[in-house]
Structure formats: C-alpha cells, structure tokens
Amino acid sequence: RKEVEQDPGPFNVPEGATVAFNCTYSNSASQSFFWYRQDCRKEPKLLMSVYSSGNEDGRFTAQLNRASQYISLLIRDSKLSDSATYLCVVSQAGTALIFGKGTTLSVSS
Amino acid sequence: NAGVTQTPKFQVLKTGQSMTLQCAQDMNHNSMYWYRQDPGMGLRLIYYSASEGTTDKGEVPNGYNVSRLNKREFSLRLESAAPSQTSVYFCASSEAGGHYNSPLHFGNGTRLTVT
To answer: CB–CB of B108 and A42 under 8 A?
Structure first.
C-alpha cells in the first residue's frame, strides 16, 4: 500500500458545482497534513494546512479523519480558475513530506 | 519578494555530461529540499538540508549530490547525467529546521532533458 493515495481523476465538473477529493495515508504516526495546488507546468503552491478540527478558507474546506486515516478537500461553487491538480501531503515528525500523485480537476463553463 | 529562485529554467544534456542546478531562497528559511517530478510518479524527494551545514538523502538520491553553500543556497549536482534523470526538478524551502509541520515554498522548477 502506498503511503499517500489519491484518486487521480480527472474530475470534470461544471462551474458552480461542489466537488470533494479524498486522500488516504498509511502511517498512523502522520502528524501534519496539507493540500497543495499545482497548475500545469507550474510549481506546487500551498492551498491550505489541514487541522484536526477541520478548517475552512472561503470556498475550500479541509477535514482530517485520523481514525480512518484520510483527509478531504471540499470545493464549493467551483470556478474555472479552480482547474488544477490538487496534491495531498502528509508528514511525520522528523521525516520528509510525502506527496500524493495528485487529483486533477477540470471545471468547465 | 523573490521567494525561491532556481536556475536554469530549462536544460538539455547529453548522457554523461554534468551540471549543477542552483537554488536560492530569501525567506531566511532553515530547511531546503530538492524534489523531482515525473509523470505518474508524483513529487519525490532527492535530498534535503534540515539546516545549514547538514544534508540528508531522500527517497531517490542515486546519481545526485548536493551542497548547502550557506543558509540561502542549496545546489544539486548531476555528475554523469543519464536519460532516467530527465525530469522536472523543484527546489523548496521551509521555515522549520525539519519537515515537521512546516509547509514548503517551491521554486519555479528546472526542466531537464538528458538525451
């Protein structure tokens, strides 16, 4: 089982739709969780950190479920500009950040 | 505010040639990293430097060497390039003196082709 797994997609949704991505991780000792966004041929950029209590940033909501070892990202009212690849990132104390392979989102008008 | 700067942006090498990828950050971050990204493989860590004066191997270090020249700069060297090293290379930095709980800031990437 890979350390961080994501559904590669692509997820094709119309503008205004709500879309959710899940990411599972294998190491129960994982302590830090992030979602990054990567546009085509660009560098990854931090979208949001994921906290145990869940957190929201505008149209984006991230949740962590430690018991089931997954994190999720919910995007409400999708915009064309949300089209990108979303990377799930997990780390344990003293070790490297582990990146998932990413989930591709395409929002169409 | 430059953030993380990588050079060059593009490079074509022939098998066996050597080159050094340069990376500098102006955020006073302690930790710096080199990743490679290949289609279907995601981002994989090559080497990292938790703090000035230290370097450690990541997931895929073979064929590479690194130098943490000072707090700002972290270079990646390919001594004898191979076609398997064709990839997009990203340098990144983070504030903390390790990977724990500290998000990464990435450079724009270097697209390397080895023929």
So the answer is: yes
